[in-house]
Amino acid sequence: MNTLRHLTFIIILLGLSSSNLIAQQSDRINNELYLKALELFNSGDYQKSIDVCNDALRRHKGKVDSFNCDFFYLKAVDYYHLNDCQNSIKNLDLFLTVSSDNANAYWLKADCFLNLLLYEDGITEINKAIRLNPNNESFYYTASLLYFHNEQHRKSLKSIKKTIKINDK
């Protein structure tokens, strides 16, 4: 009976080791794909970067989790640079399901809404960014534009003043 327990324990350990090796292999491939996509992004080849991200996401069957959420963020930035704010927002929404504390994602989403002339939606998103990072001058500048275009001029002026105050520090 003791031998059976030891054998079972060894089988479990081997199973954990092999699944750990598979996970490490998957992580390595993910990292390689991410670096490739990032290199393409940095060279300005946004569509190819999106294609690499899509290849990586297919490996995960489109599931959003902490292992692949960065691909959604990178795709969002790629789409933003391609002036495709709708797809940028879709990918940011997926990214934010896993990483809801990323102020820059809300800022990018707010800027997309600004480009789409959806000022109320943009104000909602930029306020989330500001709550997460109240000392970012770019967030207040974006807020000032959104408030201005939404004819909330006092709030726009207040945001511009905050931008200047942060910039002077």
Could you walk me through the main structural features you see in this protein, from its secondary elements to its overall organization?
Mean pLDDT is 85; it is low at 4-25. The longest helix has 41 residues, at 2-42. The N and C termini lie far apart (72 Å). The protein is elongated. The protein is 82% helix and 0% strand. It is mainly alpha-helical.
Briefly, what is this?
With 169 residues, the protein is an all-alpha fold.
Strand content: under 5%
Rg over CA atoms: 22 Å
- C-alpha geometry: elongated
Average pLDDT number? 85
Distance between the termini: 72 Å
Helix content: over 70%
Biggest sheet, in brief?
A: none
The overall strand count is 0
**Class from helix and strand fractions:** mainly alpha
Number of helices: 8
The helix/strand order is HHHHHHHH
Poorly predicted runs are 4-25
Secondary structure topology:
Blueprint: H1 2-42, H2 46-59, H3 69-81, H4 85-98, H5 103-115, H6 119-132, H7 137-149, H8 153-168
List keywords for this structure.
169 residues, mainly alpha, 8 helices
